[in-house]
Design a protein that fits this description.
alpha+beta
Amino acid sequence: MYNWIFFYIMVMSHNGKVGFGLTKNPERVDDYTAHCLEDQCFRFLFFGPEDEIEDIEGTFKQTHRKILIKKIKRKSKKWRLEGIDPKESSMTAEDVKLWTENFIIANNFKTQRVRDAWLPYSGDKRFSRKNITISPELYLEQI
């Protein structure tokens, strides 16, 4: 049995920067509201085994390291925001999604994309790990 988690891609509503990361709980999208006092949403979500999601994120960061920006909470280092530096690249959320899908296909991963009907995701309680486990066909689609 795998520990399944999410890879998210977002466009920050207050500045248009493209961000990405991994989370065990997509309701965590609310955490990004606190940083800027603007509602946020995950534009795209992928759900898969933790090792695959970590590989997606790690390879994306390694491949695109020259165009990334990072912000880390200075004292506690409890959170880190990562995204595409618009001064270095015009990469969009759609570009990150396509890169992710191609990486999943090339590596024959089990990771699936969250259906468009649930996106952009901004905290809908019906979308949960429990419900995905019960009815994956309602929430996920093969790439």
